[in-house]
Sequence to fold (404 residues):
Amino acid sequence: MARINDNFTKLPGSYLFSEIARRVSAYRAENPGKNIISLGIGDVTQPLAPTVIKALHEAVDEMSEKETFRGYGPERGYDFLLNAIAENEYKARGVDISIDEIFVSDGAKSDSGNIGDIFSVDNIVAVCDPVYPVYVDTNAMAGRAGEFTSEGRWSKLIYMPCTEENGFTPAIPEKTPDMIYLCFPNNPTGATATKEQLKVWVEYANRNGSVILYDAAYEAFISDPDLPHSIFEIDGARECAIEFRSFSKTAGFTGTRCAYTVVPKELKREGMSLNQLWARRQSTKFNGAPYIVQKGAAAIYTEQGKKEIRSVIDYYMNNAKVIRDGLTKAGLTVYGGVNAPYIWAKTPDGMKSWDCFDKLLKEAGVVTTPGAGFGPSGEGYIRLTAFGSAEATAEAVERLANIL
Ligand code: MLT
Fold:
Protein backbone atom coordinates (compact mmCIF):
# COMPACT_ATOMS: atom_id res chain seq x y z
CA MET A 1 0.00 0.00 0.00
CA ALA A 2 1.26 3.45 -0.85
CA ARG A 3 1.83 5.49 2.26
CA ILE A 4 1.21 9.20 2.24
CA ASN A 5 3.46 12.01 3.44
CA ASP A 6 1.87 12.23 6.88
CA ASN A 7 3.26 15.72 7.42
CA PHE A 8 0.25 16.83 5.37
CA THR A 9 -2.09 15.39 7.98
CA LYS A 10 -0.53 17.67 10.59
CA LEU A 11 -1.46 20.84 8.68
CA PRO A 12 -4.30 22.75 10.29
CA GLY A 13 -7.41 23.40 8.15
CA SER A 14 -6.81 24.83 4.72
CA TYR A 15 -4.39 27.34 3.26
CA LEU A 16 -5.28 30.83 4.57
CA PHE A 17 -6.46 32.35 1.29
CA SER A 18 -8.45 29.22 0.39
CA GLU A 19 -10.24 29.47 3.74
CA ILE A 20 -11.07 33.12 3.09
CA ALA A 21 -12.34 32.28 -0.41
CA ARG A 22 -14.50 29.51 1.12
CA ARG A 23 -16.06 31.87 3.67
CA VAL A 24 -16.69 34.54 1.03
CA SER A 25 -18.39 32.07 -1.34
CA ALA A 26 -20.58 30.75 1.48
CA TYR A 27 -21.57 34.31 2.33
CA ARG A 28 -22.22 35.11 -1.34
CA ALA A 29 -24.42 32.03 -1.71
CA GLU A 30 -26.50 33.14 1.28
CA ASN A 31 -26.66 36.76 0.10
CA PRO A 32 -27.07 36.67 -3.66
CA GLY A 33 -26.79 40.03 -5.36
CA LYS A 34 -24.88 41.64 -2.49
CA ASN A 35 -21.98 43.72 -3.75
CA ILE A 36 -18.81 42.46 -2.09
CA ILE A 37 -15.50 44.30 -2.34
CA SER A 38 -12.33 42.31 -1.83
CA LEU A 39 -9.39 43.91 -0.09
CA GLY A 40 -8.37 40.44 1.08
CA ILE A 41 -5.88 38.47 -1.01
CA GLY A 42 -3.20 40.69 -2.54
CA ASP A 43 -4.34 40.21 -6.10
CA VAL A 44 -3.87 42.99 -8.63
CA THR A 45 -6.84 44.48 -10.48
CA GLN A 46 -5.33 46.79 -13.10
CA PRO A 47 -4.67 45.41 -16.60
CA LEU A 48 -1.19 44.63 -17.85
CA ALA A 49 0.70 47.64 -19.17
CA PRO A 50 0.23 48.35 -22.94
CA THR A 51 3.95 47.75 -23.57
CA VAL A 52 3.70 44.34 -21.93
CA ILE A 53 0.58 43.46 -23.94
CA LYS A 54 2.35 44.45 -27.17
CA ALA A 55 5.35 42.25 -26.30
CA LEU A 56 3.03 39.35 -25.44
CA HIS A 57 1.21 39.69 -28.79
CA GLU A 58 4.48 39.81 -30.71
CA ALA A 59 5.73 36.72 -28.89
CA VAL A 60 2.48 34.88 -29.66
CA ASP A 61 2.98 35.75 -33.34
CA GLU A 62 6.53 34.41 -33.20
CA MET A 63 5.11 31.09 -32.02
CA SER A 64 2.99 30.89 -35.20
CA GLU A 65 5.98 30.84 -37.60
CA LYS A 66 8.27 27.90 -38.16
CA GLU A 67 11.34 30.18 -38.11
CA THR A 68 10.55 31.83 -34.78
CA PHE A 69 8.63 29.09 -32.99
CA ARG A 70 10.16 28.02 -29.62
CA GLY A 71 9.86 24.73 -27.80
CA TYR A 72 11.54 24.06 -24.48
CA GLY A 73 13.48 27.08 -23.33
CA PRO A 74 16.43 27.27 -20.97
CA GLU A 75 15.13 26.17 -17.52
CA ARG A 76 16.67 29.17 -15.83
CA GLY A 77 15.26 31.75 -18.23
CA TYR A 78 16.11 33.38 -21.56
CA ASP A 79 19.19 35.59 -21.67
CA PHE A 80 17.15 38.61 -22.81
CA LEU A 81 15.22 38.55 -19.52
CA LEU A 82 18.16 37.56 -17.30
CA ASN A 83 20.24 40.43 -18.73
CA ALA A 84 17.39 42.91 -18.28
CA ILE A 85 16.95 41.83 -14.62
CA ALA A 86 20.70 41.97 -13.86
CA GLU A 87 20.98 45.39 -15.46
CA ASN A 88 17.81 47.11 -14.20
CA GLU A 89 17.14 45.51 -10.85
CA TYR A 90 20.70 45.12 -9.61
CA LYS A 91 23.38 46.98 -11.56
CA ALA A 92 21.26 50.15 -11.54
CA ARG A 93 21.43 49.98 -7.71
CA GLY A 94 25.15 49.29 -7.64
CA VAL A 95 24.73 45.55 -7.05
CA ASP A 96 26.65 43.08 -9.14
CA ILE A 97 24.57 39.99 -9.93
CA SER A 98 25.56 37.86 -12.90
CA ILE A 99 22.98 36.18 -15.09
CA ASP A 100 23.98 32.69 -13.97
CA GLU A 101 22.91 33.67 -10.45
CA ILE A 102 19.34 34.46 -11.57
CA PHE A 103 16.68 31.76 -12.04
CA VAL A 104 13.45 32.84 -13.77
CA SER A 105 10.38 30.93 -12.63
CA ASP A 106 6.59 30.95 -12.52
CA GLY A 107 6.29 32.60 -9.12
CA ALA A 108 7.88 33.67 -5.86
CA LYS A 109 5.28 31.60 -4.02
CA SER A 110 6.50 28.44 -5.74
CA ASP A 111 10.17 29.37 -5.40
CA SER A 112 9.94 30.26 -1.71
CA GLY A 113 8.06 27.00 -1.16
CA ASN A 114 10.31 24.85 -3.35
CA ILE A 115 13.61 26.18 -2.03
CA GLY A 116 13.24 23.81 0.92
CA ASP A 117 14.13 20.93 -1.46
CA ILE A 118 17.82 21.88 -1.29
CA PHE A 119 17.96 22.01 2.52
CA SER A 120 18.10 19.24 5.11
CA VAL A 121 14.83 18.38 6.85
CA ASP A 122 16.77 18.61 10.11
CA ASN A 123 17.40 22.34 9.73
CA ILE A 124 15.93 24.66 12.32
CA VAL A 125 13.76 27.30 10.67
CA ALA A 126 12.98 30.80 11.94
CA VAL A 127 10.02 32.80 10.67
CA CYS A 128 8.60 36.18 11.52
CA ASP A 129 5.28 36.13 13.33
CA PRO A 130 2.99 37.19 11.62
CA VAL A 131 4.28 35.72 8.37
CA TYR A 132 3.32 34.88 4.77
CA PRO A 133 1.89 31.38 5.40
CA VAL A 134 3.74 29.71 2.50
CA TYR A 135 7.06 29.61 4.42
CA VAL A 136 5.44 27.87 7.38
CA ASP A 137 3.17 25.46 5.52
CA THR A 138 5.86 24.30 3.07
CA ASN A 139 8.28 23.61 5.92
CA ALA A 140 5.52 21.72 7.71
CA MET A 141 4.93 19.63 4.57
CA ALA A 142 8.64 18.84 4.42
CA GLY A 143 8.70 17.73 8.07
CA ARG A 144 10.79 20.63 9.32
CA ALA A 145 8.11 22.24 11.50
CA GLY A 146 7.39 19.43 13.99
CA GLU A 147 3.88 19.23 15.43
CA PHE A 148 1.13 21.85 15.35
CA THR A 149 0.38 22.62 19.00
CA SER A 150 -2.77 23.77 20.74
CA GLU A 151 -1.31 27.29 21.01
CA GLY A 152 -1.38 27.54 17.21
CA ARG A 153 2.40 27.15 16.86
CA TRP A 154 4.63 24.54 15.27
CA SER A 155 6.83 22.83 17.84
CA LYS A 156 10.10 23.02 15.86
CA LEU A 157 9.79 26.47 14.30
CA ILE A 158 11.37 29.53 15.84
CA TYR A 159 8.83 32.36 15.85
CA MET A 160 10.20 35.89 15.80
CA PRO A 161 7.36 38.13 16.99
CA CYS A 162 6.83 41.33 15.03
CA THR A 163 4.62 43.47 17.17
CA GLU A 164 3.55 47.06 17.68
CA GLU A 165 6.08 47.22 20.56
CA ASN A 166 9.09 46.31 18.40
CA GLY A 167 7.90 48.29 15.37
CA PHE A 168 7.14 45.00 13.55
CA THR A 169 10.84 44.23 13.21
CA PRO A 170 12.05 40.80 14.28
CA ALA A 171 14.78 40.50 16.92
CA ILE A 172 17.60 37.96 16.67
CA PRO A 173 16.16 34.79 18.23
CA GLU A 174 17.65 33.13 21.34
CA LYS A 175 18.06 29.77 19.63
CA THR A 176 20.19 29.81 16.46
CA PRO A 177 18.24 28.95 13.28
CA ASP A 178 19.76 27.34 10.16
CA MET A 179 17.25 28.93 7.78
CA ILE A 180 15.83 32.41 8.37
CA TYR A 181 12.88 33.73 6.34
CA LEU A 182 12.73 37.51 6.07
CA CYS A 183 10.35 39.54 3.92
CA PHE A 184 10.73 43.29 3.36
CA PRO A 185 8.65 45.32 2.59
CA ASN A 186 6.73 42.96 4.77
CA ASN A 187 3.71 40.90 3.96
CA PRO A 188 1.48 41.24 6.01
CA THR A 189 2.53 44.19 8.22
CA GLY A 190 3.87 46.54 5.55
CA ALA A 191 6.97 47.16 7.73
CA THR A 192 10.33 47.85 6.11
CA ALA A 193 13.95 47.12 7.02
CA THR A 194 16.79 49.62 6.85
CA LYS A 195 20.29 48.76 5.60
CA GLU A 196 21.54 48.83 9.20
CA GLN A 197 18.86 46.33 10.26
CA LEU A 198 19.63 43.98 7.37
CA LYS A 199 23.36 44.27 8.11
CA VAL A 200 22.72 42.84 11.58
CA TRP A 201 20.99 39.80 10.02
CA VAL A 202 23.68 39.30 7.38
CA GLU A 203 26.48 39.40 9.96
CA TYR A 204 24.52 37.07 12.23
CA ALA A 205 23.89 34.58 9.41
CA ASN A 206 27.54 34.64 8.34
CA ARG A 207 28.71 34.09 11.94
CA ASN A 208 26.40 31.11 12.40
CA GLY A 209 26.31 29.54 8.95
CA SER A 210 22.58 30.26 8.63
CA VAL A 211 20.99 31.02 5.26
CA ILE A 212 18.63 34.00 4.89
CA LEU A 213 15.69 33.41 2.54
CA TYR A 214 14.86 36.97 1.61
CA ASP A 215 11.50 37.67 0.03
CA ALA A 216 11.63 41.02 -1.78
CA ALA A 217 8.42 40.56 -3.78
CA TYR A 218 7.22 44.04 -2.76
CA GLU A 219 10.43 46.03 -3.26
CA ALA A 220 8.89 48.07 -6.11
CA PHE A 221 6.54 49.70 -3.61
CA ILE A 222 9.36 51.30 -1.61
CA SER A 223 9.15 55.08 -1.80
CA ASP A 224 11.77 55.99 0.81
CA PRO A 225 15.06 56.44 -1.11
CA ASP A 226 17.16 55.26 1.85
CA LEU A 227 15.57 51.82 2.12
CA PRO A 228 17.32 48.86 0.48
CA HIS A 229 15.48 47.05 -2.34
CA SER A 230 17.68 43.97 -2.23
CA ILE A 231 19.52 42.11 0.51
CA PHE A 232 22.49 42.11 -1.85
CA GLU A 233 22.90 45.83 -1.17
CA ILE A 234 24.39 44.63 2.14
CA ASP A 235 28.06 43.55 2.26
CA GLY A 236 28.42 39.88 3.03
CA ALA A 237 24.92 38.91 1.78
CA ARG A 238 26.39 37.00 -1.18
CA GLU A 239 27.76 34.48 1.33
CA CYS A 240 24.50 33.91 3.22
CA ALA A 241 21.36 34.93 1.30
CA ILE A 242 18.93 33.85 -1.40
CA GLU A 243 16.51 36.48 -2.75
CA PHE A 244 13.02 36.00 -4.19
CA ARG A 245 11.53 38.58 -6.55
CA SER A 246 8.30 38.65 -8.52
CA PHE A 247 6.60 40.37 -11.45
CA SER A 248 3.20 39.62 -9.87
CA LYS A 249 2.69 42.82 -7.91
CA THR A 250 5.33 44.93 -9.67
CA ALA A 251 3.80 44.47 -13.11
CA GLY A 252 0.41 42.83 -12.64
CA PHE A 253 1.57 39.27 -13.39
CA THR A 254 -0.45 37.42 -10.72
CA GLY A 255 -2.32 35.59 -13.48
CA THR A 256 0.43 35.70 -16.09
CA ARG A 257 3.06 34.19 -13.74
CA CYS A 258 6.69 35.21 -13.78
CA ALA A 259 9.28 35.66 -11.02
CA TYR A 260 12.94 35.01 -10.29
CA THR A 261 15.23 33.88 -7.55
CA VAL A 262 18.83 34.96 -7.05
CA VAL A 263 21.31 32.46 -5.61
CA PRO A 264 24.84 33.92 -5.51
CA LYS A 265 27.79 31.73 -6.44
CA GLU A 266 29.59 32.45 -3.16
CA LEU A 267 26.74 30.86 -1.18
CA LYS A 268 28.04 27.48 -0.04
CA ARG A 269 27.19 25.14 2.79
CA GLU A 270 28.99 21.88 3.62
CA GLY A 271 31.27 22.62 0.66
CA MET A 272 28.36 22.60 -1.80
CA SER A 273 27.25 25.51 -3.99
CA LEU A 274 23.59 26.32 -3.35
CA ASN A 275 23.48 27.90 -6.80
CA GLN A 276 24.35 24.51 -8.30
CA LEU A 277 21.91 22.66 -6.07
CA TRP A 278 19.08 25.01 -7.08
CA ALA A 279 20.07 24.71 -10.75
CA ARG A 280 19.94 20.92 -10.37
CA ARG A 281 16.57 21.11 -8.64
CA GLN A 282 15.05 23.43 -11.22
CA SER A 283 16.37 21.56 -14.25
CA THR A 284 14.88 18.34 -12.87
CA LYS A 285 11.49 19.60 -11.71
CA PHE A 286 10.84 22.69 -13.84
CA ASN A 287 10.94 23.37 -17.58
CA GLY A 288 11.16 27.14 -17.45
CA ALA A 289 8.63 29.95 -17.62
CA PRO A 290 6.91 30.30 -21.02
CA TYR A 291 8.79 32.26 -23.70
CA ILE A 292 5.72 34.44 -24.30
CA VAL A 293 5.51 35.36 -20.62
CA GLN A 294 9.23 36.10 -20.37
CA LYS A 295 8.93 38.41 -23.39
CA GLY A 296 6.11 40.23 -21.61
CA ALA A 297 8.17 40.50 -18.42
CA ALA A 298 11.23 41.85 -20.26
CA ALA A 299 9.06 44.63 -21.74
CA ILE A 300 8.76 46.29 -18.32
CA TYR A 301 12.44 47.22 -18.61
CA THR A 302 11.98 49.34 -21.75
CA GLU A 303 11.75 53.12 -21.17
CA GLN A 304 8.03 53.12 -21.94
CA GLY A 305 7.44 49.95 -19.93
CA LYS A 306 9.11 51.48 -16.88
CA LYS A 307 6.85 54.55 -17.07
CA GLU A 308 3.70 52.47 -17.40
CA ILE A 309 4.62 50.17 -14.51
CA ARG A 310 5.46 53.14 -12.30
CA SER A 311 2.10 54.74 -12.92
CA VAL A 312 0.25 51.56 -11.87
CA ILE A 313 2.37 51.28 -8.72
CA ASP A 314 1.58 54.92 -7.91
CA TYR A 315 -2.10 54.18 -8.48
CA TYR A 316 -2.01 51.33 -5.94
CA MET A 317 -0.03 53.40 -3.47
CA ASN A 318 -2.67 56.09 -3.72
CA ASN A 319 -5.21 53.42 -2.71
CA ALA A 320 -2.95 52.60 0.23
CA LYS A 321 -3.13 56.22 1.33
CA VAL A 322 -6.93 56.28 0.96
CA ILE A 323 -7.18 53.18 3.18
CA ARG A 324 -4.70 54.49 5.74
CA ASP A 325 -6.35 57.91 5.98
CA GLY A 326 -9.91 56.55 5.99
CA LEU A 327 -9.30 53.94 8.68
CA THR A 328 -7.33 56.36 10.83
CA LYS A 329 -10.19 58.85 10.60
CA ALA A 330 -12.57 56.06 11.61
CA GLY A 331 -10.51 55.61 14.77
CA LEU A 332 -8.35 52.59 13.90
CA THR A 333 -4.61 52.38 14.50
CA VAL A 334 -2.97 51.52 11.18
CA TYR A 335 0.53 50.54 10.07
CA GLY A 336 2.14 49.90 6.69
CA GLY A 337 0.83 51.26 3.41
CA VAL A 338 3.66 53.75 2.91
CA ASN A 339 6.47 51.63 1.42
CA ALA A 340 4.26 48.58 0.96
CA PRO A 341 0.88 47.78 -0.59
CA TYR A 342 -0.48 46.29 2.64
CA ILE A 343 -2.18 48.09 5.51
CA TRP A 344 -2.04 46.39 8.90
CA ALA A 345 -4.84 47.68 11.09
CA LYS A 346 -5.60 46.97 14.73
CA THR A 347 -9.10 45.63 15.18
CA PRO A 348 -11.51 47.87 17.09
CA ASP A 349 -11.81 47.19 20.84
CA GLY A 350 -9.34 44.30 20.72
CA MET A 351 -11.76 42.19 18.66
CA LYS A 352 -10.37 38.83 17.50
CA SER A 353 -9.17 38.89 13.90
CA TRP A 354 -11.59 36.31 12.50
CA ASP A 355 -14.53 37.95 14.34
CA CYS A 356 -13.55 41.27 12.82
CA PHE A 357 -13.20 39.63 9.39
CA ASP A 358 -16.75 38.22 9.71
CA LYS A 359 -18.16 41.55 10.94
CA LEU A 360 -16.61 43.52 8.07
CA LEU A 361 -17.83 40.97 5.53
CA LYS A 362 -21.36 40.78 6.91
CA GLU A 363 -21.93 44.41 7.81
CA ALA A 364 -19.94 46.18 5.12
CA GLY A 365 -19.51 43.55 2.39
CA VAL A 366 -15.75 44.09 2.54
CA VAL A 367 -13.30 41.19 2.48
CA THR A 368 -10.10 41.63 4.50
CA THR A 369 -7.50 39.14 5.71
CA PRO A 370 -7.58 38.25 9.42
CA GLY A 371 -4.21 38.88 11.03
CA ALA A 372 -4.38 35.66 13.06
CA GLY A 373 -4.19 33.74 9.77
CA PHE A 374 -0.58 34.93 9.48
CA GLY A 375 0.45 33.63 12.91
CA PRO A 376 -0.27 34.03 16.62
CA SER A 377 1.15 37.59 16.80
CA GLY A 378 -1.25 38.64 14.05
CA GLU A 379 -4.19 38.20 16.43
CA GLY A 380 -6.03 41.48 16.92
CA TYR A 381 -5.16 42.78 13.44
CA ILE A 382 -6.64 42.70 9.95
CA ARG A 383 -4.77 43.23 6.69
CA LEU A 384 -6.13 45.24 3.76
CA THR A 385 -4.57 45.36 0.33
CA ALA A 386 -4.10 48.38 -1.88
CA PHE A 387 -4.53 46.32 -5.05
CA GLY A 388 -8.23 47.07 -5.59
CA SER A 389 -9.51 49.56 -8.12
CA ALA A 390 -9.53 53.17 -6.89
CA GLU A 391 -13.35 53.26 -7.00
CA ALA A 392 -13.84 50.01 -5.09
CA THR A 393 -11.20 51.01 -2.54
CA ALA A 394 -12.87 54.36 -1.87
CA GLU A 395 -16.25 52.67 -1.57
CA ALA A 396 -14.88 49.99 0.78
CA VAL A 397 -13.28 52.59 3.03
CA GLU A 398 -16.52 54.55 3.18
CA ARG A 399 -18.49 51.42 4.07
CA LEU A 400 -15.97 50.48 6.76
CA ALA A 401 -16.00 53.99 8.24
CA ASN A 402 -19.80 53.75 8.54
CA ILE A 403 -19.73 50.61 10.64
CA LEU A 404 -16.57 51.12 12.73
C1 MLT B 1 -1.15 37.78 -0.29
O1 MLT B 1 -2.31 38.22 -0.33
O2 MLT B 1 -0.51 37.66 0.76
C2 MLT B 1 -0.53 37.39 -1.58
O3 MLT B 1 -1.33 37.70 -2.64
C3 MLT B 1 -0.28 35.99 -1.62
C4 MLT B 1 0.68 35.64 -2.71
O4 MLT B 1 1.33 36.50 -3.31
O5 MLT B 1 0.81 34.43 -2.91
Remarks:
- The chain has 13 helices and 15 strands.
- The chain has two domains: 15-44+306-403, 53-301.
- The longest helix spans residues 303-329.
